[in-house]
Amino acid sequence: MIQPEILCQSPIFRGIAPDELQKLFSQIHYQVKLYNKGDLIVNGGEICDRLLIIQMGNVKAEMNDYSGKTIKIEDIEAPRPLATAFLFGKENQFPVTVSANTDVEIVSVPKPEFVKLLQLNSLILNNYLNTISSRAQFLSQKLKFLSFKTIRQKIAHYLLEMAGDRLQTVEIPQSQGQLAEMFGVTRPSLARALGEMSQDGLIETDRRFIKILDKNRMNGLLKN
Questions:
Q1: Where are the alpha helices (DSSP H) in the chain?
Q2: What is the pLDDT of residue 40?
Q3: Which residues are within 8 A (CB) of 137 and not within 5 positions of it... i.e. 6 or more apart?
Q4: I need a surface site. Which of 25, 51, 61, 175 has the fewest CB within 10 A?
Q5: pLDDT for res 71
Q6: Residues contacting residue 18 through CB under 8 Å, at least 6 positions apart
Q7: Cα→Cα distances 3→9, 12, 30, 102, 213, Å
């Protein structure tokens, strides 16, 4: 069974009351699937013919970079949907491989049934369009990130994106191990690159806080 109190917090169903969401789901066919920690949920390249929404737990999305290394794209927690930008279109395949970080419940809505939901409620339609636009922008940034060949370039891009135009110092939300996994490198390699950038006067590190000392030189790394 769906848990409308949780699903109404999803970007797709935001603004819809739980009882209204329950009523809408009673008019379509769907499944709630259970996965154990470590289970494969979808394979990258698999046909995306259903909307998947995490109802409980969290998953990780991964893809291979230009050299064949596995790169973690992100961790996704309930109640977010998966691969919303790839449900429609000619090349409607899951862009990433998704596996369970914890025990997971997934609400699976076949594409024709989701179309019915979009027709039943204009707010869901509007939410969905906003969601796929945001995901397309996010994936565009990730593809740009994967094009960088060196660890220094990846670090520079990551820090400059977090800092934007205003900030000089950023707090890294991930541990160094998680950051290394996201970059597709070993933890010692990441630590060594950070140390070299610090010695070169590009950054200054203080545990999870990193100060960008020279944004112009950091931007220059991305052009090499």
A1: 4-7, 18-25, 111-120, 122-146, 151-163, 176-183, 187-199, 215-221
A2: 96
A3: none
A4: 175
A5: 79
A6: 4, 5, 8
A7: 11, 15, 13, 18, 48
Which residue bears the tokens 């806080």?
209
**173, amino acid identity:** P
104 and 140: one domain?
yes
pLDDT value, residue 65: 65
Q: CA–CA separation, 195 vs 84, rounded Å?
A: 39
Provide the pLDDT for residue 148. 81
- Report residue 103 as tokens: 């025990």
Picking from 97, 59, 88, the residue whose alpha carbon sits closest to that of residue 76 is 59
pLDDT at 66: 59
Low-confidence residues of the chain, pLDDT below 50? Answer: none
Crossing angle of helices 176-183 and 151-163, in 10° steps, is 110
Strand order in the sheet with 97-100: 40-42, 97-100, 58-64, 70-77
Sign of the torsion angle spanned by Cα atoms 126, 8, 78, 37: negative
Using an 8 Å Cβ cutoff, are 183 and 151 in contact? yes
Parent domain of 205:
151-221
Whichever domain contains 81, its CATH number is 2.60.120.10
